[in-house]
C-alpha cells in the first residue's frame, strides 16, 4: 500500500510557509525517527516510492525511452511536450556556484543550551535546556570550485543556521579565529588574488601562486591569518575535528537591555587535529571527497559530530582594555585572557536527503540574527551584512530565496513583501502595506520586550565625522602573528616553515618571495624568516621592518597539541591480512576496538575473501589498493606465518605500512608480523609496536592512536620514501 505521498501539485501548495515550523519542539531532531515522520512534517520532501512517473504538470508518462518520431527512423516532432519539458529542465539544471566557499557539505542536527543564559542574552534558543533547536551546518573550502578536492590547504567555512522560534540565526564563521583583511572593501581584491589566476585558471583549490602572495605580501594586515593558513589548521583531519569561530565581535543583549561583547566559539568533541601535508596532497587525488565522506559516514554510523558552543565575554566597559581593538577582525582574544564560557552543544545527526535542495540552496547571512544578539562595528562584519543577501539574488535567482525549504524560518514570516521571481507563498488579504485598515491592520509590529518582543537594535551612542579611514587602533599587524607562532609546538613550527617554503617555492617572481620574507616573516619571527629564506635560497633577514609590537606571551590554547580528545572513539584501523592469517588476532582486535568505539576494516591483497590459518573464510572490506593507508588512522598487521610471508613479498602491502609509518601513525605488528621491521628496515618506537593479542598490547596501541601522531618519529620518518 502506498504511504502518504502527495501529488506534485499538492506538494507545491503545502510548501508555503508551513515548513520546519512543525518540526521545532518535536522529537524529530533525534535520529531514529522514521523518514515517514519527517516526510509528513516537511511536505516538501518528495518521495517517489510507489508513485507513477509523471510530467511536471502531473500527466502520467507511458514511454520514457523514445522521442515522438515520424516513423521508427524519421525525424523527431516538436510536438513532443514530454521530451521538450524534460530536456528544457535539464538544460537549466545548474545554478551559479558560490563565488567563494563553493565546495561544501552539510548536515542537520540540533542545538541545545546547557542552562538558562538569561543574564547574558534574551535570545530564546539560549533559555530552556529542555529544548532542541534545529540546525543545519555547512562546511566548505574557500578557494576551489564545487568539484575541487576536500583536503587542499585552505580556510574552512563553518556556517550554522539555527531555526529558532524567534527567526533564523546564522552564525557564518570559519575554522580560524581571524581574517585576512580588516575592511570589507578589500574583500574583492583579496578573493581575486587567491582565486585561480585569470589567464589560465590555475591553480585549482590552492594559494601557492603569484597573485595570492603578491597581494598578501603587500597587505601586512593579512600576516596573522596567512600564518594560520600555513599552519596545520588549514589541512584539518576531518570537518568534525575542527574548531569554529564567529571571528567578529558581536553583542549579546539581555532582557534589561544590558549588552556584552562576545566572540563565538565551537569546540569539537572529537578534538582538534590535522592531516600531514603529504597525506593531504595524496588524499586530494585519491579521495577528493575525503572530508565529505567522513562527515556523511560518521553520521550514518552514529558517531555524531558534536561541538560545544561557547563565548568569550567582554563587558561593555572593558571594550578598550586590550592592546588590540575588539573591532579588528585580524585579532583574537587569547583564551588565557578571556576564557570561553560554554553555553550549549550542537549535534549533527541527520544527513541531507538531497544535496542540491539542501546543501547547495542553503543561503547563510551574518545579518540573520534574532532578538538578544546584535552586531559590533567591525568594518568587515558591516560589509558582510550587505554581501550575503546580495549574492543570493543572483545565485538563487531572486529575492524569494527565503522560501526555498532549507531557508525557511521556523517562525512565521508575514509581511508586505510580495511577488518577485519564484514566489511560492499565496498571500491572502488585500493589504500588502503597513499600516492598513483593510485587513484589520495585520500583520502588525511588535514592540520590543523582555521575551517575544520585536527586534530592537542596541542603542549605541555614536558621535563622529564621516571618514574613509582605518582606525589607528588597527595598526599593529604582527604582534598576534608572533603570538601564534611562538605558541606552536616544535613540530607545528616545522610544518609552518615547510608550508611557507612550499608555497613561496611555487611563486615565480623573486621579488614577491623576497617581500614576503623580508617585510612580513621577518616581522613575525626572525627564525621563521631565516629558515624559509634558506629554503628559497635567499639571504636571511637580520631585523624586522616594523617597530612597536605588543609584548608577546604564549597562548597554549592555540596549539593543537593541547586540543586532542584523549580517546580513540570513531578512529579507523586498517587490518592487513592475507591467506593463512591468524583469525583469532583479528577477532580479538575487533572486539577491543568496539569497546573503545573505534572501527576496523579488513584489507586483503585483493577484494577476495582471505582464508585464516584454521581454514575460515573472512570477507574483506576492500583491497589494500582500494583503501590506501591515508584513509586510516592506524594499521594492524595481523600475525600468521603464511599471511606475513605473503605480505612481505607484496609491494602494495609494504607501501601501505611504510606510508603509515611516514605519516606518523600508530602501527601494531602482531605475532609473526614483527618480521616486517627487518623487511622494511624500521625499528620499533612509541607508536610502532610489536606484540600479541593481549589487552596489554592493545592498550599500548590504542594509547599511541589517541596521541593522533607519533611526533617523535617525524625527523626520522623524513628519510623514509613513500
Ligand atoms: Fe564570506 N561570503 N565574506 N566570510 N563566507 C560568502 O556568501 C563575504 C568572510 C563565510 O556555507 C558568500 O552565500 C564578504 C568572513 C562562509 O554557504 C559571499 C566578506 C567569514 C561562507 C561572502 C566575507 C566568512 C561565506 C559567497 C568580507 C568568517 C559560506 C556565497 C567582508 C567569519 C557559507 C554566499 C555557506 C560565503 C561575502 C568574509 C565566512 C559572497 C564580502 C570574515 C562560511 O556573500
Task: Tell me the span between the first and last alpha carbons.
Answer: 57 Å
Shape: globular
- Helical fraction equals 25-40%
Which assembly state applies to the chains in this document?
A: single chain
CATH architecture of the largest domain: Beta Barrel
Ligand identities? CIS-heme D hydroxychlorin gamma-spirolactone 17R, 18S
Low-confidence stretches: 1-22
Number of beta-strand segments:
18
- Quickly give the structural class: alpha/beta
Number of structural units classed as domains: 3
Number of helical elements: 20
Query: What Rg, in angstroms, do the CA atoms define?
Result: 28 Å
Assign the CATH class of the largest domain.
Mainly Beta
Strand content: 5-15%
Do you know the CATH topology of the largest domain? Catalase HpII,  Chain A, domain 1
Kindly report the average pLDDT value: 94
Largest beta-sheet characterization = 10 strands, antiparallel
What is the name of the CATH superfamily of the largest domain?
A: Catalase core domain
